[in-house]
Amino acid sequence: MGEIEVNYGSTLPTESLKVIAESVGIGNLSDDAAKEISDSATYRLKLVLQESKKFMMHSNRCKLLPSDIDNALKVFGIEPIYGFHAKDHIPFRYASGGGRELHFIDDKDIDLIEFVNAPLAKLPLEISIRCHWLAIDGIQPTVPENPPSVSKDVQKLECVDPLNKLKKPIDKEVSGRPSTGKAQKLRNVETVHVKQLATHELSVEQQLYYKEITEACVGSDESRRAEALQSLASDPGLHEMLPRMCTFIAEGVKVNVVQNNLALLIYLMRMVKALLDNPALYLEKYLHEIIPSVVTCVVSKQLCMRPEIDNHWALRDFASRLMAQICKMFNTPTNNVQTRITRVFTNATNSDKTALPSVYGALEGLAELGTETIKVFVIPRVRMISDRLDSPEVTQNNVDRISGNQIKHLLCVIF
Questions:
Q1: 296: pLDDT confidence band, cut at 50, 70 and 90?
Q2: Which of 87, 100, 155, 164 has the largest count of CB atoms under 10 Å?
Q3: 3-class DSSP assignment, residue 210
Q4: Is residue 319 predicted with pLDDT exceeding 90?
């Protein structure tokens, strides 16, 4: 720094310096020496305060803190003053007596008994390390720790505009070159875009995962099935296998409805639920396979070998909730999914030839779609359904009688 006049404003009084000198064992300090020390100390103090103000201003504060002074001392290579730093204003109390004045901090009394009897603080969790593969041979594995290779927004864009993935920027003509000749004639002809074939080839690891996950979901091991469903509901990289998963569910429902295999139908519906709950998947492109499978489990005439004993009503209830979830997630003014599903269920309740288990499923499906659907499509048909349930044909047949009781119980729950 250059020679700057700093002898302005307040300076440390020489009397204070003489008292400080006497406290450290230096007596009879001359006035000239005290003045020189005072000027030097004042100069150094102003430098520290100026540097402290810089820290305060760079911190966007209007209040100077002790930490600003400590940081300024560090800048000048001086050991900072260690002590108590209070975030708030420290209230001082005044006391006088015996010709002396004293300012002190009113400390709060601490009850040692309360301090000793206080419960111990919880121990922090132990530090642990979990390893996972970031990439294998340059390919990112689809594990929950890695981000999905294709986000849900991209999947939705591909569903809305399938040609978006095939669009490529057209090379512009090089400026300055005349566009004549054969090239110009070809440009004048109508261009035909050929759609590329989507092979959807899976890697060996993905094929192994698909095989294991499908076997586990329809297998007899409940713990393994729970792990597989959890994987379907949380893994972010399943979009490449999603077409095969949906086809597996659709074909499985077709086969097991014919064979009246209730257990496998429940397992397949649980797979649908897991895929719907996966936040990284967008299933609108595969609704043409999922919706018929779910509707089949709702309104099928027979879903089990022993309809008078087996609890196929739980499957119809679960599938109805899935159908309501699908309508809530994917219904748009373009596809009108909820309107079409409502029409299917309504047609099942209107016909007198519809089996009573199917009527139960249709009523449950309409009830899951909301109160407005109940008011418009269920209440006007209660009298017709009630008359059918009281007919001799229903009361004499054991299966129909059980179905009628289930329908009556359902209507009581709805209303």
A1: very high
A2: 155
A3: helix
A4: yes
pLDDT digits (tens, 9 = 90+) for 67-110: 888 889 889 888 877 665 666 666 777 777 777 777 777 777 77
Residues 240 and 233 sit within 8 Å (Cβ to Cβ):
no
3-state secondary structure of 139: strand
| pLDDT tens track for 15-33 | 888 888 888 888 888 888 8
**DSSP letter (8 states) at residue 247:** H
Structure letter (DSSP) for residue 136: B
Distance CA 345, CA 360 (A): 10
Give CA angle at 215 (213, 219), nearest 5°: 120
Cβ–Cβ < 8 Å for 276, 322: yes
**Helical H segments across 122-261, by residue range:** 152-160, 182-188, 204-217, 222-234, 242-258
Q: How far apart are CA 148 and CA 349, in angstroms?
A: 44
CA 106, chain centre distance (Å): 50
Residue 93, token pair as written in the block: 């109390």
pLDDT band for 272, please (50, 70, 90 cuts): very high
Phi, psi (degrees; rounded to nearest 5) at 104:
-140, 165
- What 3-state DSSP class applies to 298? helix
**Euclidean distance between CA atoms 129 and 121, whole angstroms:** 24
Q: Name the DSSP class of 33.
A: H
Residue type, 402: I
Task: Give the mean pLDDT of 141-152.
Answer: 67
Overall pTM surpassing 0.70 (yes/no): no
What tokens does 95 get? 């006391």
Burial letters for 277-314: b for 16+ Cβ neighbours within 10 Å, e otherwise? Answer: ebebbbbbbbbebbbebbbbbbbbebbbeebeeeebbe
Nearest to 159 by CA among 398, 334, 363: 334
Q: Residue 168 pLDDT > 80, yes or no?
A: no
| The pair of three-digit structure tokens given for residue 106, joined into one six-digit string | 């009113």
Which DSSP string corresponds to 318-356? HHHHHHHHHHHHH--TTT-HHHHHHHHHHHHHH-TTS-H
pLDDT of residue 198: 45
